[in-house]
Amino acid sequence: MTRPALSFVDATILGALITPGPTSNQALRWLRAGEDSWITSEISMALCLANLTAQGISLTQQQACMDRLLLLLRHGVGLRPLPIQTLGPPTDPQADRLPPLQLLQLQAALHGRCGCLMSNDSALVEASRQAGLPAFGLTIAAATQA
């Protein structure tokens, strides 16, 4: 029996999964249809929660999103610790163009030996591809999904 491949889910995809809307529906369909196991890191979860606050949604809506995130982590997306090794300087010269939090997400995906990275952040998707890790996004044009 073979184990399913791992796919890394960044903060933008976590956000899409827990906030209502068309991107959320698409992300949920993607999660249910895939055979891969989805994982994320603490940094992605923290960034997702920070993004909720930055969106200016009410505390009641934030609590509902946080509840959905907890359910998602219990029943759909594995949470992997961010290894201390990922905090070193990037080994890929292209990666140092990323903001630090996106770089940590990329390093977590690479360290976790994931088969792909899923993000709606086009710079993170591009850096992932340049590092040799296939990447996909819900809101990134199909022509760039190569």
Give an overview of the whole structure.
By secondary structure, this protein is an alpha/beta fold. It has one domain (6-144): 3-Layer(aba) Sandwich (Rossmann fold), CATH 3.40.50.1010. The protein is built from 6 helices and 5 strands; from the N terminus they run E-H-H-E-H-H-E-H-E-H-E. The chain has helices spanning 11-18, 22-33, 42-54, 59-75, 100-111, 122-130, and strands at 6-9, 37-41, 77-80, 116-118, 135-136. Strands 3-2-1-4-5 form a 5-stranded parallel beta sheet. Helix 6 links the parallel strand 4 (116-118) and strand 5 (135-136). The longest helix is centred in the middle third of the chain and has 17 residues, at 59-75.
- What's the Cα radius of gyration? 15 Å
- Topology-level CATH name: Rossmann fold
CATH architecture: 3-Layer(aba) Sandwich
Structural class: alpha/beta
Assigned CATH superfamily? 5'-nuclease
Characterize the biggest β-sheet: 5 strands, parallel
User: How are strands sequenced across the largest beta sheet?
Assistant: 3-2-1-4-5
